[in-house]
Amino acid sequence: MTDDLREQQNGLLPEDYATSEKMLAEIVDLTYDCLLLVSVETGGIVYANKACRRLYGYRSEELLGMPMQEIAARDRNSLEREIQRVIKKYPGSYQFETTHGTKTGRQVPVEIISKLVVIDGKKFLLKHIRNISKQKKLQLEAELLIQKLSNHAYYDQLTGAHNRTYLFSVLLPKVVASQLQAGILLMDINKFKFINDTYGHQAGDYILAEFAHTVEDCIRKQDKLIRYGGDEFIVVLMKSSYEEAVSSASRIKKTVADRQFIFQGQRIECTASAGIAAGKFKTEKDLEVWIKQADTALYEEKRHLTVVAGQGSVT
Question: How far apart are CA 49 and CA 36, in angstroms?
């Protein structure tokens, strides 16, 4: 077998063809990702393959000599910092994500691998640029899906309030970890069974949802509303004393009583009762104690008594 045949069989190209500038240019232009050669001295673009022209929308003659910061939407100092990072990585490469601007002003997320190369004694940045718009879109969709699933996991779908899973799995560990003082309101809707029996379950659902919205409007952003079960709700008042919890409960009950709840043209009277407790959360068992105290106070209020759970310490 001749050397030429052996060379062809091994997939090798003749030396003069492999090193031809035309052949290399064709290979580079077939590359789907962008390749830019940027002068370290001037910061100007000295080479751009066809993929760059497709991505940025500039003609070849517009790209050549263009300052890199026009595409990168960064100042010369930012480019200098990138150059220093690339130099530190030499002979390796520096990889990062950023946003580039097109001729039309559209912002495109890109991933860049930048490497220092020396050609005829001059330093250049060889930049491999990949459009990651699709990946970012998929990432955003995944994040939205996770958030949606989280909402299903931690929120009551009827009222929009947090649920018991959130209370015990998310909120309680945070409160205990911070050794937080908090007020607990255990609330329910007075005569809710009567509302369901008289106006129907759709009306009951309406009252539950609107009651939750009303309570949300009465509490601070840092406080949390939890649908505990049925028509029972727990309000966790962060960094609140017992006296502040009493004041919050009075304000919520007054707001609910003063509001007009109208379902399908019918006004439905809605009032609420509240049991109150407060204390410092040292262990997760403390929440159970405060809820029991608040439940006792709620029961007493339901019997039209004025006794409410007092402050105490959990032993």
Answer: 7
For residues 132 and 114, the answer to whether their CB atoms sit within 8 Å is: no
CA 127 to CA 93: how far, in whole Å? 10
Q: Which CATH fold topology does 31-132 show?
A: Beta-Lactamase (3.30.450)
Q: Which two structure tokens, joined as six digits, stand for 251?
A: 């304000």
Task: Convert the pLDDT of each residue in 107-153 to its tens digit.
Answer: 999 999 999 999 999 999 999 999 999 999 999 888 888 888 777 88
For 153-302, CATH gives 3.30.70.270
Written as one letter, the residue type at 27 is I
Report the distance separating Cα 128 and Cα 95, nearest Å: 9
pLDDT value at 20 more than 90: no
Domains 31-132 and 153-302 share a fold: no
- From the list 4, 231, 258, 295, the catalytic residue is 231
217 has catalytic annotation: no
Spatial neighbors of 272 by CB under 8 A, at least 6 apart, are 187, 188, 189, 190, 211, 252, 253, 256, 257
CB 31 within 8 A of CB 47: no
DSSP 8-state class, residue 223: S
Query: What is the pTM (predicted TM-score) of this model?
Result: 0.57
Residue ranges of the domains in the chain?
A: 31-132, 153-302
The secondary element (H helix, E strand) that includes residue 307 is none
Residue 37, number of CB atoms within 10 A of its CB: 16
- What does the block give as tokens for 21? 């500038």
The phi and psi torsions of 126 (rounded to 5 degrees) equal -95, 115
